[in-house]
Design goal:
Blueprint (H helix, E strand, L loop, with lengths): L19 E3 L18 H11 L5 E3 L10 H7 L3 E6 L5 H17 L4 E8 L9 H11 L7 E6 H6 L10 E5 L10 H18 L5 E6 L15 H18 L3 E3 L9 H4 L30 H24 L7 H28 L2 H28 L6 H5 L9 H26 L8 H17 L9 H21 L4 H19 L8
Parallel strand pairs: 1-2, 1-8, 2-3, 3-4, 4-5, 5-6, 6-7, 7-8
Helix pairs in contact: 6-7, 9-10, 9-11, 10-11, 10-14, 11-13, 11-14, 13-15, 14-16, 15-16
């Protein structure tokens, strides 16, 4: 999983500077949605100093939140600027921001090389094409630099009339977000093919790629898998095509932006070629690239947990009058192997996918349940005890189990079931931004299932709570797999885990066990 890859051409190379790269200065909890935020001059200067080492140009998206200082600072570091103006439904604010942009263009004629009036305003449905054209026509006579508009390629083809009012066509290609996303390996060729299609629709106009990139972390969409290697490879390949075919590319984006995770999920925060916290390049020139650079630590944690599962089985089996069945040892081996493989990946997913107090709480509880489940299930399995049900833990006092470890196992199952239900409902009703918790869920569900299968009580009734959740998980699994498609192995794995969890709960029986 962590095998490094050395690309023929590094995505960032100081010896061959990028044509341009998108830049937003927001760090940590900073967000452009905060109208009171003014990013400091020092913070912007720190970023531009580093970007000047790898790029000739930066693209901005607005002139508020302190971004009006960018042209002046860019000139100090030898950078040119594609100056963006963020327009939307508020006409008064649109006019104010345009006035600021015009003034900046007059003050920095050698730095600002073009003004991009609006970014995806047609895609967002905040403006109709005729109003956008009117704004573009009003700006062009006021400045000496080219004026353009930026949107995804589909909306340029839907509104070709806008091309008459721009000096060049600026198109966005984010293949991961397309309705039918290609594999990362095919994404550069896909972008180049669509670029040629757009060029044919606008004869005589220069076609510039205003945004293109690939995320380094996040959930799969169809066969499109975010990863560090895929991000680096896509950037390297699209830059190579741009050099061969002589077209301009602005990469999206310079720095990871954590604030986007609130609106776009994990994947929204990891489009940068620089880390958003340390502000360092993800892929230094000449360095091999791994999807899991901390694999040694992750492997050590997994091996330790694997060893603990086997040790727990050995210690528990010594207290029995009769030796455990061979099937029990096979189940222990399966659980130990899975947790050994998946623990490091689960911990990594917690680090990247946990966001906000609620997100960190849910992911931490999920990892805690996934870590304790194999240990507690092993104790029950080797002791000959069945999987506890909700009534054994939360039912009336007279029927609750008095066994501490059985209670802990029941609580782990309840936590896993509740979190799994919350995630399942999210993947059904709001799937676009949701991650697939396949690693942590598998760590917990497999030990639960083996315990329920091997130590199933011969008598007893099926509890209502377990039956309801089992039905929910079956329906969710079927929907998730059909909705995401067969090429999304994360969805297929998650759906299979839900089916296994449903089988576990369906096998549960309400039988009170004694000491």
């Amino acid at each position: 999983m962590a095998t490094p890859v050395t690309l023929t051409r590094a995505p960032i190379d100081a010896a061959a500077k990028l044509e341009c790269i998108s830049y937003a200065p927001f760090r940590n909890d900073q967000t452009p949605h905060d109208p009171a935020l003014i990013v400091s001059r020092e913070q912007i200067a720190e970023d531009l100093r580093e970007l000047a080492k790898i790029s000739k140009c930066i693209r901005t998206y607005s002139v508020d939140n302190g971004l009006d200082k960018v042209p002046e600072l860019a000139s100090e570091f030898g950078l040119t600027v594609l100056l963006g103006v963020w327009i939307g439904r508020d006409r008064a604010k649109n006019a104010l921001l345009i006035d600021i942009a015009v003034a900046l263009a007059e003050a920095h004629p050698g730095v600002i090389t073009a003004i991009i009036v609006g970014s995806e305003v047609l895609l967002r449905g905040e403006m109709i094409a005729s109003d956008l054209r009117q704004i573009l026509r009003s700006v062009k006579p006021r400045v000496e630099v080219p004026v353009t508009y930026a949107d995804v390629w589909e909306f340029w083809l839907r509104h070709p009339e806008v091309g008459a009012d721009v000096d060049f066509v600026t198109i966005h290609f984010l293949p991961y977000w397309e309705d039918f996303p290609p594999r990362a390996e095919d994404a550069a060729a896909h972008v180049d093919g669509i670029r040629r299609q757009v060029a044919a629709a606008f004869p005589g106009k220069e076609i510039r790629i205003g945004e293109t990139g690939w995320p380094s972390h996040g959930r799969m969409r169809a066969a499109a898998l975010p990863s560090r290697i895929h991000q680096a490879r896509f950037v390297s390949e699209i830059l190579d095509r741009a050099r061969r075919d002589n077209f301009r590319v602005n990469l999206f984006e310079a720095y990871d932006e954590p604030w986007k995770r609130r609106w776009e999920g994990t994947v929204g925060g990891y489009w940068g070629l620089f880390d958003g916290t340390e502000r360092k390049p993800k892929y230094p020139a000449g360095a091999a690239i791994s999807n899991h650079p901390s694999w040694r630590l992750q492997m050590a944690g997994g091996m330790l947990l694997c060893t603990c599962v086997f040790a727990t089985a050995l210690l528990t089996s010594r207290g029995r009058l009769t030796p455990p069945r061979s099937a029990a040892w096979i189940a222990v081996a399966a659980s130990a192997s899975l947790v050994g493989i998946l623990f490091g990946l689960s911990a990594e997913k917690l680090f990247y996918e946990g966001y906000g107090a609620g997100g960190w709480l849910v992911h931490s509880l999920l990892l805690a349940a996934a870590t304790t489940a194999p240990l507690l299930s092993t104790v029950a399995l080797m002791s000959g005890r069945p999987l506890p049900v909700v009534l054994d833990v939360l039912g009336p006092e007279k029927i609750r189990t008095p066994l501490f470890l059985t209670n802990m196992l029941g609580f782990a199952l309840i936590v896993m079931t509740v979190i799994a239900a919350q995630i399942a409902l999210g993947l059904v009703f709001d799937a676009r931004w949701r991650d697939f918790p396949f690693a942590a869920m598998t760590m917990a569900v497999v030990p639960f299932w083996t315990l329920a299968f091997l130590n199933r009580p011969r008598t007893g009734s099926r509890p209502l709570a377990e039956a309801v959740f089992a039905g929910l998980f079956v329906l969710a699994a079927v929907y998730i797999m059909l909705n995401e498609g067969p090429y999304n192995w994360q969805a297929m794995w998650t759906g299979a885990t839900y089916l296994l969890l449903a089988s576990t709960l369906w096998q549960a029986r309400a039988v009170t066990t004694g000491d």
